[in-house]
Design a protein that fits this description.
Blueprint (H helix, E strand, L loop, with lengths): L3 E12 L3 E11 L3 E11 L8 H4 L4 H33 L5 H30 L3 H6 L2 E3 L5 E6 L16 E6 H4 L5 H8 L14 E6 L2 E7 L7 E8 L6 E8 L2 E7 L6 E9 L2 E8 L2 E8 L1
Antiparallel strand pairs: 1-2, 2-3, 4-5, 5-6, 7-8, 7-14, 8-9, 9-10, 10-11, 11-12, 12-13, 13-14
Helix pairs in contact: 2-3
C-alpha cells in the first residue's frame, strides 16, 4: 500500500448473513504515485477477518498457484501473439511508423520478460516448496456467491506500467471446484455446510487489548516460514502507529519496538492461549502485563 494517501474510498461488494466483503480503492504515493485496489472480507457473525489460510486446507494452495501460473502464461502468451501480429502489419505498412514499431517491440519485450519471470518463479517455488507461500499472497475477492476470485499484482514496475497491457491478473474459480479443498470453517462460511467455529489464529486479525491499564489496537502480519513477521499497534488514546518486528516459536511470540524518545527497545514476551495473547511488555525500566484478543 502507498506510504501516503491522497484519496481513499470503499465499495461494499457483499453484505449478507455470512460475509461482509469490501473493496478499498485509493490513490497514493510511495516512491511513485498511483491508484490501487484491495479486497477485504469479514465473517458477518463475528466480525473476524476472513483469511485464505482459514478457509482452505493446506493442499489447496499448490493447486491455486498452478492455476494462477497457467492463467499468467495464457495471458502473456496471448498478448505476445497479438503484438507480434500487429508488429508484422506495421512493418508491412508503407508508412513504416517507427514510433509505433518501437512501442510494439517494447511491449513484446515486456510481456516476454513477464512470461519468463512467471515460469522462473514457478520453478524456484517448486524447488523450495514455495507454492503455498505464493498463493497465500493472492488478494481474494468474495463478491460473487458461486465463485472466488484470486488476484495478483501486475508484472511491470511503475516506470514500465504504460507498456503493460495485461496489468493485474484475476483468476476466477467456481466454489464447486474448490469445495473438496475447503476447511470445515470454509465450508460453513462459504457453503453453509455445518457450523464449524472460526479458527483461533490471531495473525492477520485486528486485535484489541491492553498494556498495563492502557487500551491498545494491534495487528500482526502472517509469519513467514522462518517464523518472522511484522506488526504494528497504537494506544487507543493517541492513535500513533508503532511498528513491530517479531518472531513466532510454537505458541511463543516475541515482539520488539524502537523507543525513539528514550532510545533503545521495548520487548513483548507473549504466549498464545485459547485465542488470546498474554504476557508482558518490558521497556524504560518497566514491566507491564499485556493481553490481546480479536
Amino acid at each position: 500500500m502507498p506510504e501516503s494517501l491522497d484519496e481513499l474510498g470503499f465499495t461494499v461488494e457483499r453484505n449478507d448473513q455470512r460475509i461482509l466483503a469490501l473493496r478499498a480503492d485509493g490513490d497514493g504515493c510511495g516512491a511513485y504515485c498511483e491508484e490501487w485496489s484491495r479486497h477485504y472480507a469479514f465473517d458477518s457473525r463475528t466480525g473476524r477477518a476472513v483469511r485464505s489460510e482459514d478457509i482452505f486446507l493446506r493442499r489447496a494452495f499448490a493447486m491455486i498457484a498452478d492455476r494462477m501460473l497457467h492463467e499468467k502464461v495464457r495471458l502473456y502468451s496471448s498478448q505476445i501473439a497479438q503484438l507480434r501480429h500487429a508488429l508484422k502489419a506495421l512493418r508491412g505498412d508503407r508508412k513504416h511508423d517507427q514510433d509505433a514499431i518501437a512501442d510494439t517491440e517494447e511491449r513484446i519485450a515486456l510481456n516476454q520478460e513477464c512470461l519468463d519471470r512467471a515460469k522462473e518463479q514457478d520453478a524456484q517455488d517448486t524447488k523450495v516448496d514455495g507454492r503455498a507461500e505464493s498463493a497465500l499472497g493472492f488478494n481474494l475477492s468474495f463478491a460473487a456467491r458461486q465463485s472466488l476470485v484470486f488476484k495478483t499484482g501486475r508484472c511491470s514496475n511503475h516506470a514500465s506500467r504504460a507498456l503493460d497491457d495485461v496489468g493485474d491478473i484475476a483468476l476466477t474459480i467456481p466454489l464447486a471446484e474448490l469445495q473438496p479443498l475447503l476447511s470445515p470453517y470454509g465450508k460453513a462460511l462459504l457453503l453453509a455446510e455445518g457450523d464449524a467455529p472460526p479458527p483461533t489464529n490471531l495473525f492477520g486479525q485486528i486485535l484489541r487489548g491492553t498494556i498495563g491499564k492502557r487500551a491498545i489496537t494491534l495487528r500482526l502480519d502472517r509469519p513467514y516460514d522462518d517464523g518472522s513477521f511484522a506488526g504494528r499497534y497504537f494506544y487507543d488514546k493517541f492513535r500513533k502507529t508503532i511498528e513491530l518486528s517479531g518472531k513466532r516459536r510454537g505458541t511463543q511470540v516475541e515482539l520488539s519496538e524502537t523507543l525513539p524518545n528514550q532510545g533503545g527497545e521495548a520487548t513483548f514476551t507473549l504466549t498464545e492461549k485459547s485465542g488470546r495473547l498474554v504476557g508482558t511488555w518490558e521497556g524504560t525500566g518497566k514491566s507491564l502485563p499485556v493481553e490481546a484478543h480479536w
